[in-house]
Amino acid sequence: MRVTVVGTGYVGLVSGTCFSEFGHEIICVDKDADKIERLKAGEIPIYEPGLDQLVEKNVREERLHFTTDLAEAVPGSDAVFIAVGTPSRRGDGHADLSYVYAAAEEIASLLEGYTVVVTKSTVPVGTGREIEKLISNIRPEADFDVASNPEFLREGAAIEDFMRPNRIVIGTDSARAREIMRDLYRPLYLNETPIVNTARETSELIKYASNAFLATKISFINEIADLCEVLGADVQDVARGMGLDKRIGPKFLHAGPGYGGSCFPKDTLALLRTGELNQVPLKIVEAVVDVNRERKLKMADRIIEACGGSVEGKKIAVLGLAFKPNTDDMRESPALDIIPVLQQNGAEVHAFDPAAMEEARNYLTDIRYASSPYDAMDGADALVIVTEWNEFRALDLKRVKSLLNSPLLVDLRNIYAKANPAAEGFDYYGVGKGR
Ligand code: UGA
Fold it and tell me: Per the similarity annotation, which family is this (predicted)?
């Protein structure tokens, strides 16, 4: 099969590369000439474990191609995926669809033979219908369907998630489009991956409802963590005790500094906006968003409190800047709320992150970036863990203690909670740990 993927951001690049690994001929298109040149040279613009080898292999085997020219790609394609960005629109929080519609317009003029146009980007319910109208207006004679096929990739585990998904969701009423989608995902069909064949609107909503529900689990456990601290209970044990109930499940019940990233914050806001526009109040999602917003800010106060009520003139070591491990993505990272508040209160911040320091420079100022976790904490008055990178899980606590000015450990991800750092002489603050 021949497939065009429009947009070589996170979703487009991972999806295109994985489809080529399935044996299809994939042409990835992006307007950014510099990015396309770098991709052709084997340079991957994002940090995603395993992606570079997969791109290199499929380019070498001539199944994966990159171009800036849609006209080289779309004519003769069986499917054209729209995987361009849908950022939050300033002001009302709704998804900004200008890139999606611009791509659809260009695709319309190039369609040749029957083609399925597929939305892979997360788009509000009803977008597929709008794209269909738009293409029909430009090319009334075009032979095409518009299907929805949302992605459920996690950054840092995107290839695994694509190759071994929990489910594939395909939204279209057209049997012809469904057949093409089945051929495209053939290796996964053979694998007995569950397929949800449904209407386009339903498929679009599944994506938002899934992300909003996962965000709900996180805000829920974060509120329970606050309660644990007051009651003297342990949130990790509460989460384990809850999660063993198969109806609840153990995942996404890790209390922490709040969710970040490019998806949950944006998608929850967009879902709220869809509710508003349709006069259906989504009170739970609204609360989830509020709890998370407040939580990120509250974390800085918690650090200041642990430092005895003031960080004025203190040196604070921060481990982890990315919104989660295995990515260099800083978007909506809790670190972006925490660090400026510490600085406004007179703290000097020394930070280390295994992948996100370069990216962090675009968001944060006046930080000293350290060359290792130990370098960051040398002479610091407190050590704060913001992101649970694996390399922070096995620090030599004796060395940590000897490097720190005072043995204060604020662990916003609870990675040391079970190691009992208090026994090693640390003044230890976890999350949701009654003291
Ligand atoms: C999320 C979803 O997990 C993917 O299924 C979805 O495809 C993707 O959004 C998307 O819409 O594109 P991602 O944002 O990469 O993926 O990251 P997650 O692993 O879901 O983590 C999101 C945030 O929640 C992180 O800040 C993480 O630290 C936080 N989190 C996660 C918690 O605080 N506690 C948890 O128990 C789990």
Answer: Belongs to the UDP-glucose/GDP-mannose dehydrogenase family.
pLDDT in tens, 309-324: 999 999 999 999 999 9
Residue pair 282/209 in contact (Cβ under 8 Å)? The answer is no
Q: What is the DSSP string of 122-178?
A: ---TTHHHHHHHHHHHH-TT--EEEEE----PPTTSHHHHHHS-S-EEEE-S-HHHH
Please give the average per-residue pLDDT across 363-385, as a whole number.
Answer: 97
Instruction: Tell me, in angstroms, the distance from the centre of ligand 1 to residue 389's CA.
Output: 15
Q: How, if at all, do strands 144-148 and 64-67 pair?
A: unpaired
Give the Å distance between the CA of 41 and the centre of ligand 1.
Answer: 31
Question: What are the boundaries of each domain within the chain?
Answer: 2-198, 236-429
User: What's the pLDDT tens digit per position in 19-65?
Assistant: 999 999 999 999 999 999 999 988 999 889 999 999 999 999 999 99
pTM, two decimal places: 0.95
**pLDDT score of 330 more than 90:** yes
- Summarize the confidence of residues 115-133 as an average pLDDT: 95
Is a pLDDT exceeding 70 seen at residue 435? no
Question: Residue 94: what pLDDT?
Answer: 79
Asked if domains 2-198 and 236-429 share a fold, the reply is yes
Confirm or reject: Cβ of 165 under 6 Å from ligand 1.
Answer: no
pLDDT, mean of residues 139-161: 95
Query: Any binding-site annotation on 396?
Result: no
The residue contributing the CA closest to ligand 1 atom 17 is 154
Q: What is the CATH number of domain 236-429?
A: 3.40.50.720
Q: Which two tokens stand for residue 373?
A: 């976790």
DSSP 8-class letter at 88:
B
Atom of ligand 1 nearest to the CA of 332: 26
| 186 among annotated binding-site residues | no
Compute, in degrees rounded to 10, the torsion defined by CA atoms 221, 226, 230, 236: 40
Partners of 170 in the β-ladder: 197
Q: Yes or no: say if 57 and 238 are a contact pair by the CB < 8 Å rule.
A: no
- Homologous superfamily, domain 2-198: NAD(P)-binding Rossmann-like Domain (3.40.50.720)
- CA–CA separation, 426 vs 70, rounded Å? 59
